[in-house]
Design goal:
Layout (H helix, E strand, L loop, with lengths): L8 H9 L12 H13 L6 H11 L5 H14 L1 H19 L4 E5 L2 E6 L2 E5 L5 E4 L3 E4 L5 E5 L14 H4 L3 E3 L5 E4 L2 H26 L7 E7 L2 E6 L3 H15 L10
Antiparallel strand pairs: 1-2, 2-3, 3-4, 5-6, 6-8, 7-8, 9-10
């Protein structure tokens, strides 16, 4: 319901972190909005306190430790389900690391199964995310963890994306394959983004199939997290378009009944 309002989501979160403080996108206390934006984008994907502070200071060198800590702790208390998902993911991966036979679990409305050297995540839409060529190895903290790769041992090693761009740990194993650490935050992030992709594809298909000629609206193109369309430059056309968008983009897709 919050996202259906015209209010900026980062300004909204700033109001929770610093109640009673005026925060504007490009005006009063814009630096607090920037801290809130980093919190919403980073903490949901498992970033810890020190890394969160580093990311904020990279953008805002004058940000105070008090404001950074307040944004961090508020997120942890405000969104316990998200924090809980990371904990559940850590338990699932620990089990999958210890066992190579079939392991089944449930996380964020997804079925997770390990079969041999592959971990499968069945999304609410029915699509499956695969983590292939699993191997177990110690990470930098001497903990046993799973490492995956989309490449077979015969694939050229140059096909892997450098970890500096992926923001995850990578390692070349004895078989010549570069693998990436399957951390809890990686699993949660992939599930969130893959489900978001399914939702936006459904919305785009619904908008394309809908009879929008009467309101003079059409979908122009899409980007990774948005649909871009155009309508006639009149107040009436915009009001009609907004009504259709709120209906289509607020419904639970029949193609994803698990949601």
């Amino acid at each position: 319901a919050r996202l259906r309002t015209p209010e900026d989501i980062y300004v909204w979160y700033s109001g929770i972190v610093w109640p009673g403080t005026i925060v504007e996108k490009s005006g009063v206390n814009a630096h607090l909005r920037a801290i809130s934006k980093e919190a919403m984008l980073s903490l949901g994907f498992g970033v810890g306190g020190p890394t969160f502070a580093e990311r904020v200071w990279a953008q805002l060198p004058t940000a105070t430790e008090t404001d950074i800590a307040r944004a961090f702790e508020t997120y942890r208390s405000r969104f316990p389900a998200i924090m809980g998902a990371h904990y559940e993911a850590s338990i699932i991966l620990s089990t999958a690391t210890a066992m190579t036979d079939t392991v089944s679990a449930r996380l964020m409305m997804c079925d997770i199964v390990r079969r041999g050297d592959t971990l499968l995540v069945v999304l609410p839409s029915g699509r499956t995310v695969y983590y292939r060529n699993l191997q177990t190895s110690e990470d930098d903290y001497c903990e046993r963890s799973l490492w995956y790769s989309g490449h077979t041992p015969t694939s050229p090693p140059g096909g892997s994306v450098p970890s500096v761009e992926r923001h995850i740990k990578e390692r070349r194993f004895d078989d010549g394959v570069v693998r990436y650490k399957l951390a809890p935050h990686t699993l949660v992030q992939n599930i969130v983004q893959a489900t978001a992709r399914d939702l936006i594809v459904h919305m785009q298909a619904r908008l394309i199939d809908a009879d929008l000629a009467a309101i003079d609206f059409s979908v122009a193109f899409s980007v990774h997290d948005a649909l871009v369309g155009e309508c006639a430059a009149t107040d009436a056309a915009w009001a009609d378009t907004q009504a259709v968008l709120e209906q289509v983009m607020g419904e639970v897709p029949e193609s994803i009944p698990a949601l």
